[in-house]
Amino acid sequence: MQAHSYSYAVASNPVLYENSPLHVLFAGESQTKSGHAVGPKLYDYYLLHFVESGKGIFRTEQHTYRLEKNDFFLIHPGQLVSYTSDEEEPWRYRWSAFTGYLTEQVVQEAGLRVHQPVFHASDHNPIPGYLEQMQLAFYSRKSSSHLSALGYLYLIMGEAGNHLSDWSDPSGADSQIRRTVKQMVQYMSTQYAHPVSIEQMSEGLGYNRAYLSRIFKKETGVSPVTYLLKLRIDKSRQLLRERPELSVEQVAASVGLTDALYFSRQFKRFCGQSPTEYRNKVKQYPQP
C-alpha cells in the first residue's frame, strides 16, 4: 500500500452570514488518510467537493457513486450522506460550503439536483483553481474576499451547468436547438436598445445567420428580424405611454432605431397608427 501524507486546511469567510441571498461559508483542501470516512450525517448547507486525485465512495439516500480524479459531488442540505476515501488510493479533494435563500435556485440552474449531484469534469478544467483562489481570498481576511468567493462560486456553477446541460435533457439535438433559441431571445431582449443586427447576434453566438434564422422561425413562428423589430415596437409603445416628455425621435433612438422615419413606418405597420397618433389616443383614453 502506498503511503500518503495526510494534510488538511480550511479558511472561513471573514464576512459573517446574515441571511444573505448567497454566501460562501468556507473553503478547504485535504489529502485524506486511507479509508477516511465522513458520516452518515446531515448538513444544513450545501457542500461541494472536487476530487483532484485518488478514489473514494460517495453515498446519498438514493445512490452510491464510486468517484475518482476530476469528479465533482455536491451535498444538498438535509440529505443523509456519507463519503469514504479509498484504502489504497485515498482521495485528495478541495471543497467549499455555501448557503443563502438563493442557493437552491443557483444549484437548480446548474443542473445539480438531488438525483444528479455528481459529474465528471475534463482534464485541465478550472474548478480546482477556482476553489484554491476562493480559499486564498479567505486567508487574506479582507472583507472584499466575500465578493471574490461569490464570483468563484458562480464560475463553478457555470462549469457544472456546462457539463450537465446535455445530460439533463435526453432529447439531444432538439435540446441544443431550444437552448440556442433561448440565447437568441435573451440576446435580443437585452440588446434591443442598441443598433444591433442579426448578423452581429449570429457572430456573437458563433453560428451561421441562415442556420439561426431557420431554427428560430421553426421554434417561434417568426424570423429573428421580425421578432427583434416587434420587440422594439412593443418597448416604444411603453415609452410613448409612460414618458410623454420624450420626442418620437428620442423614443426611436431608445429602442435602437436611429432612423425616426423608418421607426414611424414600422410602428404604423404593427400598430395601425403613427407613434404620435398612438400617444394622443393614450392621452385621450388612458389605459388602466
From TrEMBL:
Domain HTH araC/xylS-type: 182-281
Keywords per UniProt: DNA-binding, Transcription, Transcription regulation
The keyword Disulfide bond is annotated on this UniProt entry: no
Molecular functions (GO terms): DNA-binding transcription factor activity; sequence-specific DNA binding
Pfam families: AraC_binding, HTH_18
Identification of the protein by name: AraC family transcriptional regulator
Organism in which the protein naturally occurs: Paenibacillus kribbensis
